[in-house]
Design goal:
Number of helices: 21
Distance between the termini: 23 Å
Strand content: under 5%
Largest sheet: 2 strands, antiparallel
Order of helices and strands: HHHEEHHHHHHHHHHHHHHHHHH
Structural class: mainly alpha
Radius of gyration: 22 Å
Number of domains: 1
Oligomer: single chain
């Protein structure tokens, strides 16, 4: 009987991965977001400027499709450079009139690690939770429209960041210091926001584990974090200028706020509403944006208190709550920023016993999927594509409301931010009332 159940579970998991992969492959070859074009520009600039890259990361060279700066740590840049050199693709981005078209082979290479990360996270969920819940929640991840959109349509690398955040948590529970430090450093070296949940994981180590354990973890993480930046500082002829640029672009990337538009791609309901008020009533509301980090810190203080005083011990709940605070407070939230929230929400739901916490966590984690059916997703299937797949576009349009009214997206984001705030308040209040019951899961 047990062998039969296990066999059926393996078959269902294989079917899930097959179906989800077919959808992703179909989307991958027929769509592209704008960042994929800009990634080519960054790779070419790195090839030209070598270790002085960050001095030119916001210059906007003649072959750049857009004047968007590279404001990330260098790990993703290394991958872009690798595929740029190995692919041998000429004319990756072609300008046709006022529009740009991109080579599909380049698109596929950029999306490849994102698709692989999707699969690994699916297997991780199924392996971590070995009963039927693991299979159900693996499906909630792998067939999630938001997840599919970011990896196989839009093409941003937040899936890879999410994978290493999750691996950090898994190895932390296994008390593997080196792998925890390695995975946490990789996550942060991909995108800076990974620092926030990982920092509280390290705080958890300081409070609940031996100081020796915590110091080793901090040391491993810090050393690995520093190493990739060293060539940009030491091997560039303008070391101080390069260091200054790295600080401005990587550490202070969101320190100069502006009114976030378009509305359809900002998922902070508060700043979306304030932008709309500014635009329609000519009121200066940007003062709120400038203090986003203070708001973020204020939201983190109750979590820190609960961690220290009330024995808040579920690391998945801690990381989910910290990341939720980031989403609530940052003045501009792009759709791809929600990928870690979804994954951490799934792990939090499955490791938490209190239903008053679990229900709002899962609702706020799955709510972003609705946007996929509101936004005209088929736009990315022809705007940068030389030979659009008209049949696929027609099918996608059947499932899409294709709304372009700004107020709809403002209301949508307000509801989303409201859900996160309610979840945050319920979560912190519930942990304040009771001592956390830790759910142990064998990996």
């Amino acid at each position: 009987m047990l062998k039969s159940l296990k066999s059926n579970r393996v078959v269902l998991l294989a079917v899930l991965i097959f179906v989800g992969t077919v959808i992703r492959v179909l989307f991958t070859f027929n769509s592209s977001g704008p960042d994929i074009l800009q990634f080519y520009a960054f790779a070419r600039t790195f090839d030209e400027e070598k270790w002085c890259f960050y001095l030119y990361a916001d210059v906007g060279k003649s072959y750049w499709p857009y004047n968007w700066e590279y404001c990330y740590p260098p790990l993703w840049l290394f991958y872009l450079f690798l595929i740029y050199k190995l692919s041998g693709v000429q004319n990756v981005v072609i300008k046709v009139g006022e529009m740009y078209k991109v080579d599909i082979f380049w698109v596929t290479l950029v999306k490849l690690p994102l698709l692989i990360s999707d699969i690994i996270i699916t297997l991780l969920i199924a392996r971590y939770f070995k009963d039927n819940r693991g299979l159900v929640f693996a499906a909630l991840w792998y067939l999630n429209p938001t997840v599919i959109y970011i990896s196989s349509i839009f093409g941003m690398f937040d899936q890879v960041v999410t994978l290493f955040i999750l691996l950090t948590g898994v190895f932390y529970e296994k008390k593997n210091i080196f792998m925890t430090g390695l995975c946490s450093a990789i996550a942060i070296l991909l995108k800076q926001y990974a620092l926030f949940p990982i920092a509280f994981l390290i705080l958890h180590s300081i409070i609940w584990r031996r100081w020796k354990h915590a110091l080793k973890l901090i040391l491993v993480t810090t050393v690995i974090l520093i190493i990739p930046f060293l060539p940009f500082i030491m091997l560039c002829g303008y070391s101080l200028e390069s260091l200054h640029k790295i600080i401005n672009l990587v550490l202070l990337t969101r320190s100069s706020p502006y009114y976030p538009k378009p509305y359809c791609y900002n998922f902070n309901g508060i700043t979306g509403l304030l932008t709309w008020i500014h635009e329609n009533y000519n009121l200066e509301t940007i003062i709120y944006f400038k203090f986003w980090f203070l708001i973020f810190i204020a939201l983190l203080l109750p979590i820190l208190y609960l961690l220290i005083k009330k024995k808040m011990d579920n690391i998945w709940i801690i990381m989910f709550c910290v990341y939720s605070c980031f989403i609530i407070s940052l003045w501009r939230i792009n759709y791809q920023y929600l990928i870690p929230l979804i994954a951490l929400g799934l792990f939090s739901f499955l490791t938490e016993k209190n239903m008053k916490i679990r229900i709002p966590v899962i609702i706020s984690s799955l709510y972003p999927a609705l946007w996929f059916f509101i936004f005209p997703v088929s736009f990315w299937f022809y705007f940068y594509i030389s030979n659009p797949n008209l049949e696929l576009i027609s099918i996608l349009n059947i499932f899409s409301l294709r709304i372009v009214v700004n107020e709809v997206y403002i209301v949508y984001s307000i509801v989303f931010t409201g859900l996160l705030i309610i979840t945050y308040l319920l979560l912190t209040s519930q942990y304040y009332k009771m001592r956390c019951e830790v759910t142990q899961v064998n990996f």
